[in-house]
Amino acid sequence: DTVVVRLVQARTVLISPRSPVYRVGATNAIGVLVRDSNGTQVTDRAAVWRSTNEAVLTVVGGVVTPRAAGTAQIIATVDNGANGIGARADTVTATVTLPPVASVSVTADRLTVQTGQTAQFTATVVDSLQQTATGRRVVWRASPASAVTIDSTTGLVTAVSPVDATVTIAAVVERVPDATPRDTVVATATLRVRAP
Predict the structure, then answer these.
(1) d(CA 190, CA 165)
(2) Reported pTM
């Protein structure tokens, strides 16, 4: 007699979690639930995983590795085999965020200038993984603002005070970009302006 073995057909594939949010620097597990036409869980079928944007995240064997901030679709495909009715798949959209900023430090090419001279300030941002966080937006501020002009993007300061002045230069960085409520990390340095 000939014995024909037929695989239980996978009818539905469901990825969990449904709206995953990952953070760069941490690996995460993602799962899939497979059921047959009766709603019974199928446990003998492995999923093949794929990311639509591997610059943002990769997924291998149900392990997600975030690489950069952004979004990517994660696709799990389950094959029904030679006796099957075709592969079944599910897709979720994952969001990857950057690790929060832990600290900011400020340096300058000079800390004493005469009126009319410039000083270039630079911020070094370190994240919670103790890695230098490049690409974070730094906003520069000066107080009192009347003593200098400051490029809020580049940190270039020009002294304009007609009298001696002590100016606080601040670098402001969002701890988590676009978070609500807004939380910032601030570092300061002191610039001394000498009138001619």
Answers:
(1) 10
(2) 0.72
In contact, 147 and 158? CB cutoff 8 Å: no
pLDDT tens-digit map of 59-70 = 999 999 999 999
pLDDT beyond 60 at 137: yes
147 band by pLDDT with thresholds 50, 70 and 90: very high
Give the bridge partners for 166, in sequence order: 192
Which whole-number Å values give the CA distances from 45 to 36, 90, 148, 154, in the listed order? Answer: 11, 14, 67, 55
Which residue is it, tokens 């799990």? 76
Torsion over CA: 110, 115, 117, 119 (sign)? positive
Distance, CA of 86 to CA of 4 (rounded, Å): 19
